[in-house]
């Protein structure tokens, strides 16, 4: 998980460094026209530039997400969850770094976006975050266990979520209905 997070962080920051040095603010470079262009933007808000006046809120929320991921990762139960949390952690740490260390100042920094998809502009961390969220939904729907329960033997570990609820309802004894038929 930590290796994937480090790869995402490094790839995102290196591509942002390239974008800041190679692209001008008004330049739009065709990559796969008309689908993808490179265009340098500094985003003070969230996706689609939502909340541009609340950058510090995103800084705090991102820091809380990083802490939550690291706390949860202590007891991961599957490689799938390690991949999902690694992608989320790498993207979150990279965005947190932008918020903390980029202009206009500590906790209010703007995220560097440069991959223009048409309706929105993002970066490598955004790709990792979207893939991580998709994986999170997929693993959750499949009932894959996120964390080991302390003291539980791995062979007896039960997946969480929908699969557990289905097993519990199927295992419940049926009782005859009272009253006339």
Based on secondary structure, the structural category is: alpha+beta
Give the strand content: 5-15%
Number of helices: 5
The SSE string, one letter per element, is HEEHHEEHH
Oligomer kind: single chain
Q: Write down how many β-strands occur, each being a DSSP E stretch of 2 or more residues.
A: 4
Stretches where pLDDT is under 50 for at least 5 consecutive residues are: 161-181
Radius of gyration: 22 Å
* Strand order in the sheet with the most strands: 1-2-3-4
Calculate the terminal CA-CA distance, rounded to whole Å. Answer: 58 Å
Q: Which bin fits the share of residues in helices?
A: 40-55%
Summarize model confidence as the mean pLDDT: 84
Sketch the major β-sheet. Answer: 4 strands, antiparallel
- The general outline is globular
Walkthrough of the structure:
- This protein has 181 residues and is of the alpha+beta class.
- It contains five helices and four strands, in the order H-E-E-H-H-E-E-H-H.
- Strands 1-2-3-4 form a four-stranded antiparallel sheet.
- The model is unreliable at 161-181 (pLDDT under 50).
């Amino acid at each position: 998980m930590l290796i994937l997070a480090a790869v995402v962080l490094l790839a995102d920051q290196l591509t942002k460094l390239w974008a800041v040095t190679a692209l001008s603010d008004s330049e739009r470079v065709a990559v796969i026209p008309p689908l993808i262009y490179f265009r340098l933007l500094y985003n003070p808000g969230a996706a689609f530039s939502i909340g541009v006046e609340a950058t510090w809120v995103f800084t705090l929320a991102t820091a809380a997400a990083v802490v939550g991921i690291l706390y949860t990762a202590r007891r991961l139960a599957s490689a799938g969850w390690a991949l999902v949390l690694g992608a989320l952690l790498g993207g979150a740490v990279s965005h947190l770094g932008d918020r903390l260390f980029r202009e206009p100042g500590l906790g209010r920094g703007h995220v560097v976006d440069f991959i223009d998809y048409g309706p929105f502009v993002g970066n490598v961390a955004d790709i990792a975050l979207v893939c991580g969220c998709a994986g999170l939904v997929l693993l959750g729907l499949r009932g894959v266990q996120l964390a080991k329960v302390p003291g539980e033997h791995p062979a007896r570990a039960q997946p969480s979520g929908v699969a557990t609820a289905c097993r519990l309802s199927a295992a419940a004894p049926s009782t005859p209905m009272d009253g006339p038929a």
